[in-house]
Amino acid sequence: MAVTMAPRLACGAPGLSWFGIFRLGLVQTALGGVVVLCTSTINRAMVVELALPATLPGLLVALHYAMQMLRPRMGHGSDAGGRRTPWIIGGMAVLALGGAGAGFATALMEEHFALGLIMAVSAFVMIGAGVGAAGTSLLTLLAGEVAPARRAAAGTIVWLMMIMGFAITAGIAGRLLDPFSPERLFAVVGGLSAAAFVLASLSVLGIERHVPRPAERREVDFRAALASVWAEPAARQFTIFVFISMLAYSAADLILEPFAGEVFGLSIGQSTALAGQQNAGTALGMALVGLMGSLFAGRALGSLRGWRVVGCIASALMLVLLAGARPGFPLGAGFFLLGVGNGAFAAAAIASMMQLAGREGEERAGMRMGLWGAAQAIAFGLGGLAGTVLCDIGRAVTGEASTAYSMVFIVEALLFIASAVLAWRIGATARPIIGKEAQA
User: What is the DSSP string of 56-104?
Assistant: First the structure.
C-alpha cells in the first residue's frame, strides 16, 4: 500500500520554520556522530591497535553500506505510512544499538576473535539498517515539508550539522580514548551512541504534529514506481554522478587514520583528532558553497555546476599531495584542505538533491531520495572495500605501507577527475535550482 498525500505545502506556505530545520539538523548531527565512530575510530582500532588486516573493517563497513541498498524500499514504506517520525526514531534506536555493539565486538576480538567477529557482523548489519531507515526518512521529510525557496539552504544546513556531528564526536572520542584499551573503546563508543539516540529522539519528537494526514490510499507497485523514477533523465544522470563521486570520496575514507598511524606514527587519539580536522574542513567547504550560491546566484561564482567541478578537482589535487606525503609533511593542513574540497562538491550535490527530489512530483520524493541514497551506499561500500583491499595488496607487493597508501590516493584522485567531467556534463542540461539563472 502507498499513500496519495494531500499537498503538504499550499502555494506560498512557508513550510518548516528555520527552527524546525535546525531540529532536523540535530538528528543528522546524532546520526553522523555514531557513523564516524564506526567507520573511522573502530576501523583504526582494528587495523593499528589490534593489528588486523585492513580488509576486515573494510568488509564490515561494506556490509553496513550493503544494507542501505534497501533505502528505496524504506522511503517507499515511510511514504505508505504517511509519517516519517517513527522511521527516524526507530532507525536511530537500531543505529545506536549497532554502534554500541560494534564497540563491544571490537573489544572482544582481542581475547575471543571468532565471537567478536560474529558480533561485529551483527552490529554492522544493524548500523546499516538504522542509517538507511533514519537517513532516508529524514531527507524525505525535508524534501516534502520545506518550502521550495528554502530547500537548498535547508539541505546545506542539515548536512553541515551532520559534519558537525562528525567533528564533535571525533574530537570527544580522541580525548577520551588515550591511553587506548579495549574496555575504554567500548565505554566511549557505547556512551556516545546512547547520547546520540537521546538527542535525535528529542529533536524530532512532535515535529510532524501539524503535517496533513494521507488523503487516500491506493495500490502502487514498488517496481513500477522505481522504474518510473529511473526513466526521468535528471534523476538517472544525478544517480550516476552520485555513484562515481562517492566512490571517489570513500576510496580513502577507511585508510586515512591508519595512514596517519603507520606512516606518521601518530597515536589513536592524534589520528582521530586529525579526522576531526578533516571534517571541520568539509564543513568550511560546504558553508563556502552555500554563501557563494546565495551572494552570487545567477553568476559563475554561484554556479552549483561550477562548485561541483571545483570541489572534485580540488579533492583530486590534495590526494595527489597526500600520495607523496611523508613525515614532516603538514598532515593536519592536508587533511583539512582535503575536507574543504570534499565539502565543496558535496554541498553543491546536496543542494541539487533537495531540489530534484520534488521537481517531477512530490508523491515520489521518497523514492528519489532512496535511489540516490542507495547509489551513495553502494559507492561507499565498494569504495571502502576497494581502498582497503588495494592497500593490503600494495603492502604485500611492495613491502612498504607508505607506497600502498599512495596507490589508493592516486586511484581516488583519478576517480575525482572523472566525477568532475560528469558534473560538468550534467550541469549543461539541468535547469536552474538556486537563483534565477544559477546552473544546476
Answer: HHHHHHHHHHHHGGGHHHHHHHHHHHT-SHHHHHHHHHHHHHHHHHHHH
CA distance 363 to 3: 8
Other CB atoms within a 10 A radius of the CB of residue 115 amount to 12
List the beta bridge partners of residue 214: 5
> What are the CA-CA distances from residue 256 to residues 315, 388, 406 (Å)?
14, 10, 11
Q: What per-residue confidence (pLDDT) applies to 339? A: 92
Q: Does the model's pTM come out above 0.70?
A: yes
Helix (H) or strand (E) holding 233: helix 233-250
| 17-206+230-427: CATH topology | Growth Hormone; Chain: A; (1.20.1250)
Pairing of strands 2-5, 214-218: antiparallel
Each residue of 226-253: pLDDT tens digit?
Answer: 888 888 887 888 888 889 998 888 887 7
For 167-197, write each residue's pLDDT tens digit. 788 888 888 888 888 888 899 999 999 999 9
Q: Please name the residues in contact with 267: beta carbons below 8 A apart, sequence gap of 6 or more.
A: 178, 180, 261
Instruction: Kindly list the domain boundaries of the chain, sorted by start residue.
Output: 17-206+230-427
Which pLDDT does position 430 carry in this prediction? 43
Confidence of residue 94 (pLDDT cuts 50, 70, 90): very high
Which residue type occupies 129?
A
Q: How many CA atoms lie within 13 A of 186 on its CB side?
A: 13
The kind and range of the H/E element at 307 are: helix 304-323
Residue 437's pLDDT band, with cuts at 50, 70 and 90, is very low
Residue holding cell 517520525? 85
Quote the radius of gyration of the chain (alpha carbons, Å): 21
C-alpha cell belonging to residue 267: 597515536
Cβ-based neighbours of 18, under 8 Å, separated by 6 or more = 150
What cell does 328 get? Answer: 614532516
Q: What are the DSSP E strand ranges found in 114-235?
A: 214-218
CB–CB of 110/52 below 8 Å?
no
Stated as kind and residue range, the H or E segment containing 2 is: strand 2-5
Res. 101: pLDDT tops 60: yes
